Amino acid sequence: MTKLKINGEIHTIDVDPDMPLLWAIRDIIGFTGTKFGCGKGFCGACMVLMDGKAVNSCQLPVSSVGENELITVEGETENLQLLQKSWEEHNVPQCGFCQSGQLITATALLNGNSNPSEEDINNAMVRNICRCGTYPRIKKAINHSVELKNKG
Amino acid sequence: MKDVKNVSRRSFLKGLGLASGGLIIASGTTLFVACEPKDIVEFNPNLFVQLNSDGNLILVASRSEMGQGVRTSLTSVIADEMEADWDRVSISQAVGDVKYGDQNTDGSKSVRLLFEEMRKIGAATKAVLIAAAAKKWEVPASELRAENHFVINANGKKIGFGDLVEIAKTLDVPKDVQLKDPKDFKYIGKYLPSKDVVTLSNGSAVFGLDKRVDNMKFAAIKRCPVAFGTVKSYDKTAALKIKGVIDVVEIPMLRKPFGPLGGVAVVATNTWAAFKGKEALKVQWDLGDNNTYDSEEYMKQLTANVHKKGKVAKTVGDVEDAFKKASKTIESTYQLPHLVHAPMEVPNAVVWVQGTTCEVWAPTQEPQRTRTEVSAFLETGEENVTVNVTFLGGGFGRKSKPDYIVEAAAVSKAINAPVQVVWTREDDIQHGYYHTVAAQYMKGGLDKEGKVTGWLHRFALPSIASTFAPGTVDPAPFESASATNVPFEIPNMQVETGEAPAHVRIGWLRSVINIPHGFAINVFADELANEAGIDPLEFRLNLIGSDRIEETKNEYKYDTARLKHVLKQAAKNAEWGKKLPEGHAMGLAVHYSFLSYVASVVEVSVINNRVKVHNIHSVIDCGLAVNKNTITAQMEGAAIFGMSLAFYGKITAKDGAIEQTNFGDYQMLRMPQAPKIHVEIVENNEKPTGVGEPGVPVIAPAIVNAIFKATGTRYKTLPLKDHKLV
Predict the structure, then answer these.
(1) Which residue of B50, B314, B692, B702 sits 20 to 30 Å from the alpha carbon of B491, by its own alpha carbon?
(2) Collapsing DSSP states into helix, strand and coil, what is residue A3?
(3) Is the pLDDT reported for residue A123 higher than 60?
């Protein structure tokens, strides 16, 4: 049995310890906000927060998560909700499929850097592909969140 | 009131057949706007509008949402004409059914075809509500007006839409409806946010991949690496040993346009087990006739085919004579590779076959075709198949083809349970419907003043028609149109086509044939400008020439003044001609597609042989701009999509199999490479035209032209990665 702490709740699941976290979250536990995009860690659609840092859940066996706290796009953490508001403000999503991953990566960025430069944003967000091409709006929305944060 | 136009009229007529009288009467506290059966010939508001007595308004979106904002655009048109409060509106997604008219969401045509229909539905609903208030207050309807979800009399007395439901549902819809004066539009023409922005930002929107049904299984399918190869034999022993794998079943190949490729499906209790089982499967294939397909060799053949005379698709004057008399002629050959859609959400579908009935939940651009194909496969009537349309995690044309949905029907039928078929990313890259691969040859003649006197455009590319009629080697008429409709005032022009047999499934990808044609035409025009020693902007405006209406085969006029206008505006916005930093340069392109006019000016730098795009100034004239938020977003996205194909887009085949596998070797543009994108939407009241696709074709040629300006090197093949520029 594997125990996973996701969005503040403990889930006990009986799966192959090699099962990537992505599939445990989606197919076993049932949070479908975290997306499958490539299965190889190229696209970032599957990003979740593990102890506040963005990880590709398709590359992480459930056995390696241990006691670490996981937050998905459905979860609650200050920077995520702030970013989601900015996403709405700037009408970021087109198809929306990659946006869970984008939001998680952006949350991790803000968790570690309260005032990221454009280069910092690029360096963080390079892990996520958006096929619709919402990058300019994502960048604006991140900057908007930073402004809101700095205003207090 | 304007007539209902061609395609939609037929669709609604067709819809009438199934509606069996079509009169839908309200029940309980709900109003379905009633109308006489004979009115349904023209429009059928009761399919699209549901007003509840609490005032909540549910509007139906008949087209699929894949990021182009169609759910918001279409329903906002109804709400505007109806004078509804947008905050009271929620959107319901239509199932696949001919009663909704054409639901095929491609070709950048949803708003174009449905704008008038949606307006009339909104106006008719408003008229019924006003009539209801008139009856209640015993005053003439002419003394009343509707505003923001209320009907109001001359003294300002108000009654809410919801409070009128009980009376309204007893009334008939008036025969003639008065449409609003466009100057009174409240939502149309504004930057209206998407209704779906919240659910698309918090993980709650249900895409096809997110659909869950009780007792649902998951399946992955191993397909032949070569298109149309078949299963000889397979060994499922290793697959069945994987924890979670339940069953292994063979899927038939159906050799029809949207038939499954066939293969062997591994059914499991979760997606990962299905993927692992698929890897463990051992399958012997009969590779079939396409197993020698080598895209590199094939490009040589295509190139040879455009270096000799082809079939004439259009001729004006005498190009050969023009070339003889020209003071200078130049020739160029362009080669563009196959592309694949790679939407972020891979093809997938949930299907539950229960005896002769079947329910589908799928991200599909074409729910009616899905219904037809699934019912044909199951040998059951279409009325027994329900197709629910989920959100689409991108489509770009891939999800117009329901092969992946028929696969799920086949698996569900075989295992007698609901199943979700999930493609891996590798499946998506390697078993797609590929954007064509193209060789194009251009020859131009210039006189002493640098005027173009002759223009020859020859192209060879496997046709989309080959997917519908195997063995086709010539382009379909629509695949010549974007070369033959070039509105250049050149006295001698000829367009020719060469043969090109298909060895993979060819399909349409966002912007379709306009990608290769827009590239060759715009790059060659730039080459001619350079030969003539004339600024590319001035040269291009001269080529387009006088203000005039070009002949078209449709009701939309091709207006050269509008084409020149977008180009001039893009140049103006980019400050064409201004002094730029060392290593920087601008390039331009202009193209008419999906009945819209688009120009882009791109600023690049090439430093240490690395290209960077700094700014893209795009201008679109798509007639009346129904939702400027969506249009701006689509133009931004089109720029990124165009950059991805210019930088990286290349699918190759060796021994019949696609060589690329995933986003590692089929790369996409990422945020650090994204330029600043500036969009202008031309203001006018012409009929709305395409938005989703027309922004793409200009990007790659504008970049190539800018690189030439910066470096003096002209890149005639894509992607730029092959030239080590990115």
Answers:
(1) B702
(2) strand
(3) yes
